[in-house]
Amino acid sequence: AKDKGRNTYAIYDSVIEHKAQARLKLVNQLHEAQEQGRFEMFYQPRYDAQGHMVGAEALMRWQQQDGDYLKPKTFIELLEDTGLIVSVSWQLFRHACEQFKSLMERHKNISLSFNVSARLLEHPEFLSRLKYILDEYKFPYDRLELELTEQTLIQDVTNSQFILNQLTAWGINVSIDDFGTGYSSLSYLKNFPVHALKIDKSFIRDMNEDKDDLELIKTMILMGQNLNITTVAEGVENPAQLQQLVAMGCDQFQGYLFSHPISFTQLETQIESLFDI
Ligand code: C2E
Ligand code: CA
Ligand code: CA
Ligand code: CA
């Protein structure tokens, strides 16, 4: 029995070792990708209730050797755990600013949304780096939106509040991403200057089958209206969802119904076409 136990441990150990090796390999690949600039931005358009494109959310992609693009699901956690997210984010932010600068001069209603992870927000140089890059590209502050999750904001409330106040003083917009999924109290909305709420796609997904989700969405939209905060529905996939959301007074929409995340070149060709709502 003793031997058998030892054997089990040996197998168990080798499984762990295998996992650790796979992880290490991926970490190396992520470093390499960062050095070679293989992370890229795709953009998913956002529309208002009249069907005009009002902006786009930058979403990270990792281009593989075969040309395919990998979504962040499989690697974002490791980027965050290793802290690599900080350098990758700045690299991509710079690139997005460069691309959007001239686009925004031609299209006055378009703004850029960028996801900020906790690691980036808590970085001591977050504000100064951000400002430096924006000024370098003469990027208009009021046409940048930073998306932060409730989870990120409540990790260090004092720091978050300080940073959000500064961002707001500069005219940069802040939105709450995945809204409704954090279990934090809503009172923070009073303390944080928030420009938009992005209603999480899990609510939108089931809204036409699940009465509870519909009621929750209604409440979130009403709350936005009362607090004078723009409401954005993410993950809108079909016309029935869109119709309901428009009827409930939701302000803006994003999802596969309108467009998948696309390359910058594709975004440019799509920017002026009106979505028929
Ligand atoms: P997120 O910020 O909530 O982004 C929305 C995700 O939903 C994107 O996945 C997008 O492709 C997907 N999506 C858009 N429309 C639909 C739809 O109609 N239906 C469904 N089912 N999904 C839809 P993606 O690009 O794989 O990104 C996943 C997450 O990775 C993002 O969630 C965000 O948390 C993170 N992420 C992506 N890019 C960045 C980045 O540059 N920096 C940071 N810190 N995080 C990023
Ligand atoms: Ca987001
Ligand atoms: Ca989201
Ligand atoms: Ca999400």
Automatic annotation (TrEMBL):
Cite the EAL domain residue spans from the record: 23-275
What's one GO MF term for it?
Answer: catalytic activity
Q: Nuclease: present as a keyword of the record?
A: no
Q: Which UniProt keywords apply?
A: Membrane, Transmembrane, Transmembrane helix
Is the keyword Membrane assigned to this protein? yes
Q: What is this protein called?
A: Diguanylate cyclase (GGDEF)-like protein
Please specify the portion of the entire protein covered by the chain, as first and last position out of its full length: 458 to 734 of 743
